Amino acid sequence: MQTKRQNRIKNWLLLALRCAFVVLLVLLFASPFVSKDKDTLVQKGKNYVVVCLDNTFSMQNQGSEGRLLDRAKRQAKEIAMQYSNSDEFCLLTMDNQSTVEQFCTRQRFLQLIDASGGVQITPQSQVDSYLLKKAYSLLQTKNGGAKRCFFISDCQAKSFDATAFPKDKSIKTLFVPLQAQNINNLFIDSIAFDNPIFKSSEPLTMIAHIVNSSSDDAKGLSVKLFVNGKQLAVQSVDVPKNSSYNARISFSLQKQGLNHCRISILDSPITFDDDFYFSLQTDKTITVLEIDGNASQGGNPYLKRLFAHSPEVSFKQWNEHSIDYNSISDYSLVILNEIKDFSSSLAMALNKYRQKSGTIVIVPSGDMNVSSFQSSMASLGLPEYSSQVKQTQRVAQINQENRLYKGVFATKVDNMEMPSVSSYWLLRQKHPVSKESIMRFANAEDFLTVSQKQNSRVYIFSTPLTEQATDFVKQALFVPTLWNMALFAQTMSVPYYYINTLNPIDISFIKDKDFEKVRVVKLSSLEGANTFIPEFINNNERCAVLLHNQAKKAGNYNIVGDGKVYGGLALNYPRQESVLTFMKPSQIKMQLKANALDNYSVLETTKQKISSYFVKHDNSFAFWWAILSLLLFCIAGETYLLIKKRKNI
């Protein structure tokens, strides 16, 4: 039997357990936590917040709450509202709007998001690290206070370059991934040509790389080619699902000079990558200059016969004692034929010529001033003539893979007639130089070699091109060798660029003399709707333009100076946005962990509202599990006391 005192104690214990149960139950639903100060998104004092907002093409996609860009804007505003008016904010977008790349008040930040014509879809596309590095650079200018970077994006897999993410332990970075729908897409990824030399009325073969990023086969896809607004070719192709196909299209340019082209397919709903633009600019004539040591005797008859009577070539011949150094750059190919002295003035002029991608052919003389050649060839970074060998040799090896012989040999030829020489000059190099053997004797010495510096090539023969020195001038191989030197000497324009390119675009292919006087260059779309003034670089070393992200629309553009069209180029949207595969939050976390990005984390807004992360952070210490344990203890204790009480009645 229980005493009254024992019974009273048990009743008090039961009451205490029941009161504790009620209190613990309330606490459990309240989800209490202890926040770690360094991880709290909003800290006491000053907060500096940068919001990186992805506004690329893929953000046009639909999510569960409408268009992704619209949702991203709402979340950017929701983030800002968690902070106070005294905090500072900065909005970064992919199109590098200068009006938003600075810290401002919260009110101004909200205005920038909602402003008419503010954050819109842009064709500009960069890897994620590009925007993050810019955000870190801005935050690092601030001293004291908490630094937070939010990255709101659909997190395309192709752009998520975690290995290049910046690291700074003072900056907390949070990814806010938006769940996009994986949309099937068919697009033209790139183009290439079998032959880099473009001439009118001669067949060209273009390879269009078409990608099918979908789960369905594309059958009977129509691929159309337009040149100067006219359709020249059409081809029907099949592209299997989740694979690619190289469509080969043959066509001929109808005119010399500038040709604006486009290859096109039809696919929906993603259409920005269905057109691929390219521009082909050919020289009306190939300009060849022969600087000759025997000009008074009519020069080299074999070179004259090859070039002087061709309608495609403008051939000039100068005596080595009457050289117009300022005009050398007007020519595609310069041939130094048996000059006696290689002066420092000529070497200096040829150095400038090489900087503009000029091509040179050096043909030695039997009685040249060797020391002048050695000095000038060294200044040009070339192998030097050392001594003359008066001994018969026959070429034993021809590099048929060299670009000079592209298309010359249908198959590899093993028994062709090889050139022979009665004497030759040895080539030596005192310093490392670029050198590739094209023809070589049996003793491994060079008959013909080439040295390349960037886009400039110098072909060096070891013997004069005369009947007395070699039978090469009478062989069938002579014509394609010298002709292709001239043909490949043309400065060809690059067929296409992407509008987000940060590098200078070379326009040295423009040979018009009047262009040298132009001070302001404009890029204008063919219809004239998109015109802008790029940065123009025009000096002895290069002629180029810098876009600085001014191009807003893909297409063919004319290069205009003083109202005259001098050339053209093609700008395409980057294909980064074309493969619509996205990183899941779990994949993002794995990438962050694999690259030791400890100060990065993920806010999964599909599971909870973004504002809830500002109340409780993932890294905060929550003790709900302890409360639940105490609740279970209370229930067990009460049950035990009730059982004991009944047994003792």
What does this protein look like?
This protein has 649 residues and is α/β, with parallel strands linked by helices. The strands form nine sheets. It has a nine-stranded mixed β-sheet. Helix 6 (344-355) links the parallel strand 17 (333-337) and strand 18 (359-363).
Topology of helices and strands:
Blueprint: H1 4-30, E1 33-34, E2 47-53, E3 62-63, E4 66-67, H2 68-81, E5 88-93, H3 106-114, H4 128-139, E6 146-153, E7 171-177, E8 185-193, E9 203-213, E10 218-227, E11 230-239, E12 243-252, E13 257-264, E14 275-282, E15 286-292, H5 301-307, E16 313-319, E17 333-337, H6 344-355, E18 359-363, H7 370-379, E19 384-389, E20 393-398, E21 420-421, E22 424-428, E23 436-441, E24 446-453, E25 456-461, H8 478-487, E26 497-498, E27 505-506, E28 521-525, E29 531-532, E30 535-538, E31 543-546, E32 555-561, E33 564-572, H9 585-594, E34 600-602, H10 612-615, E35 621-622, H11 624-647
Parallel strand pairs: 2-5, 2-6, 6-7, 7-34, 15-16, 15-17, 17-18, 18-25, 26-33
Antiparallel strand pairs: 1-35, 3-4, 8-9, 9-12, 10-11, 10-13, 13-14, 19-22, 20-21, 20-23, 23-24, 24-25, 27-31, 28-29, 28-32, 30-31, 32-33
Helix pairs in contact: 1-11, 2-3, 6-7
In short:
With 649 residues, the chain is of the alpha/beta class.
Descriptive tags:
35 strands, 9-stranded mixed β-sheet, 649 residues, single chain, 5-stranded parallel β-sheet, 11 helices, alpha/beta
Count of helical regions: 11
Strand content: 25-35%
Overall mean pLDDT: 86
The count of β-strands is 35
Strand order of the largest sheet: 16-15-17-18-25-24-23-20-21
Distance between the termini: 7 Å
Report the structural category: alpha/beta
Instruction: Write down the Rg.
Output: 37 Å
Helix content range of the residues, please? Answer: 10-25%
Low-confidence stretches: 34-38, 616-621
Largest β sheet strand count, sense and barrel closure = 9 strands, mixed
Shape: elongated
